[in-house]
Amino acid sequence: MADLFTTVVTSPLAKRAGVPQPTQLRRYTPGGPLIEGPVLLAGGGRFEKSLRVRLDEAGVAVVSAADDTEDRLGALILDLSAALDPTELAQLRTIGAPAVKRLAKNARVVVIGTDSATLTDVTEVVTQRALEGFSRSLAKELRLGATGNLVLAQGEAHDGVWSAVEFLLSGRSAYVDGQVVRVGDTAGTNQESVKPLAGKVAVVTGAARGIGAEIARVLARDGATVVAVDIPAAGEALARVANEVKGTALQVDVTAPGAGAAIVDHATQRHGAIDIVIHNAGITRDRLFVNLDEDRWDSVIDVNLRSILRMNEAILGEGGLGRGGRIVCLSSIAGIAGNRGQTNYGASKAGVIGLVTALATQVKDRGITVNAVAPGFIETEMTARIPFATREMGRRINSLQQGGLPKDVAETIAWLSQPGAAAVTGQVVRVCGQSWLGA
Ligand code: NAD
């Protein structure tokens, strides 16, 4: 239900007075079209050909810059991955500017480049790095629910690039805006399109409510068998979620020394395997730093960070995640930009980013990916309790001028959990509508 502020700012009077109106975002429905309207694909990069084939297979009409059509574009894909010199960036403007004028509501702009970490020539590095500033700036100018993101490829991973592009075009990425997604060189795995997680067993911690409950729903919708984990005190709500998603419930405090082993035992004994682990359980205990007592500090660090380190020992140990395994952790923009009153929480969520970066490298050879999702302002019970003025500010200070939904976070996690996302690891994907906070 809309609150007072939303009712006021979306009223006919406010619209006539020129108050910027948030657009209803296009969200994913299984079996629906990937994108509405044709896609203009250009740039001459090394992925253009394979993307054209994939788009065609997905039933999307692909047009080129020279095509004489008046149709509103569903998306613009500019593949500049082969650009070696800054003069080649001119096509961003010559092709991009007229195309952006023709974008439909809720359209997508996806720029594809080469990860400059894989380049040595200074001119090439400069050219590719320029794409970051371009994409983030363009995303801030897009209107009517349209988003702009950059995919940086490290090699020739055509499956990995398609996985990222498909996610960014679809309604799954409704609240992902102004982001840079790096795609490594790991070969992808085929997956079923409507149930990409069919046959997988997924564990979700903190699943009794909020974002965790929605992650459980979306993973189950995509075909996974879900083990819903939460503290015994949340047992009733947990059982409801587990029943709803036709999974099983496991009452365990993630800070307990045996939590990791209990999770692995439950998943393997009840469902025969453990393929995906979503470390979602988290708490806030906000206070200005000078007033922060030992309990508020210790509990936040323990639940949000140390428990993940401890549980991962069992999850990555004998009988735990095998080849193709997925770990996704919940970070937060507070861990990137910092937040007043949240030194404990900001430390824990920044620590999570360190964890995924370091662990991803360690388990790469085992075919396991480790990523984080950093939500911005998400409409949950937690954010509904934030004081009015702060809450409205949180909602508005992003390019999409609205808060995201738990579903938006869940969709991004579900994408990172897919077999096709094998080349995406060690990443932090922000689900924040391109929040003004942090880079
Ligand atoms: P929430 O408080 O609604 O739900 C958290 C769940 O975790 C609850 O069901 C709770 O019982 C469970 N939990 C807490 N401690 C636990 C423990 N020791 N063991 C097992 N379960 C435990 O929170 P939410 O808004 O749904 O947030 C989910 C995650 O997303 C958290 O990690 C949070 O930090 C992160 N996040 C949320 C937002 C937002 O806007 N809501 C923004 C950024 C990050």
Report on the structure:
The protein is α/β, with parallel strands linked by helices and 439 residues long. It has 2 domains: 4-183, NAD(P)-binding Rossmann-like Domain (Rossmann fold); 201-431, 3-Layer(aba) Sandwich (Rossmann fold), CATH 3.40.50. It is built from 16 helices and 13 strands. It has a 7-stranded parallel β-sheet with strand order 9-8-7-10-11-12-13, with helices on both faces. A 6-stranded parallel β-sheet has the order 2-1-3-4-5-6, with helices on both faces. The protein starts with a helix and ends in an 8-residue tail after the last strand. The mean pLDDT is 94. Bound molecules: nicotinamide-adenine-dinucleotide. The site of nicotinamide-adenine-dinucleotide has 27 residues, from helix 8 and helix 14.
Distance between the termini: 32 Å
Low-confidence stretches: none
Task: Give the strand line-up of the largest sheet.
Answer: 9-8-7-10-11-12-13
Portion in beta strands: 15-25%
